Amino acid sequence: MYTEYHNLNSGYVEVICGPMFCGKTEELIRRVKRAMISQQNVIIFKPKIDDRYHPENVVSHNEVAVKAIAINDIEEIHQYLKHHSVIAIDEAQFFSEKTVEICNELANKGKRVIVAGLDKDSFGKPFGVMPNLMAVSDFVTKLHSICVVCGRLASYTFRKTQNKDLVMVGTHETYEARCRKCYFEGQYNIF
Ligand code: ZN
Fold first, then answer.
1. What's the structural domain count of the chain?
2. Taking residues 18-41, what's their average pLDDT?
3. Rounded to whole angstroms, what are the CA distances from 9 to 86, 107, 110?
4. What does the pLDDT look like over 148-165, one tens digit per residue?
5. Structural domain harbouring 106
6. CB within 5 A of ion ligand 1: which residues?
7. How far is the CA of 181 from the centre of ligand 1 (A)?
8. N or C: which end of the chain has fewer CB within 10 A?
């Protein structure tokens, strides 16, 4: 169970994951805002590929925004890190495997690292660096959406078109959340 009051003598890595529309960014923003209220020096990064709303903001679907730095490569974060005690990374599934090493290094230096991202792509497979980040992290929070077909808990992102491009930047027009049963029934119908 996640708590903000970890009795640890080091930094740590927290992963927030789940399908699209499950509130990952909202949860990241919630944690970041609370860290800011407690006078922590916070910095937020996101991949440049995710330009759905505003290039400089982490913007969640309910339009609560916190300023973030958009970068192409995860190694660029070193240019920005100064006396930050909390480092947040949104949409981490788009970053390279190098992210694992960097998050570990930061945690070993005493930093709190908050990483949010899609755990599975729209084919139901582990997404990029996320499974390895989950493995090395100290805390994992797996959120759920609501299945648009049956209304039960959803842990899959269903792509409504047959485009097999892996880059998942889109909104309700392209993707929807589905439970396991409705996801696999839908995949069978499409492919
Ligand atoms: Zn369902």
1. 1
2. 94
3. 15, 11, 8
4. 999 999 999 999 876 666
5. 12-144
6. 147, 149-150, 179, 182
7. 6
8. N
Tokens of 70: 């958009």
- Characterize the bridge pairing of strands 156-159 and 175-178: antiparallel
**Is the distance from CB of 14 to CB of 111 less than 8 angstroms?**
no
CB contact at 8 A, 139 and 7: no
Tokens for 92, please give them. 């981490």
pLDDT digits (tens, 9 = 90+) for 42-91: 999 999 975 665 556 666 655 555 789 999 999 999 999 999 999 999 99
What is the DSSP code (8-state) at residue 85? S
Looking up residue 42, the CATH number of its domain turns out to be 3.40.50.300
The residue count for the chain: 191
Identify whether the C-beta of residue 66 lies closer than 8 Å to the C-beta of residue 33.
yes
Does 158 map to a domain? no
Report pTM: 0.88
For ligand 1, the distance from its centroid to the CA atom of residue 147, given in whole angstroms, is: 5
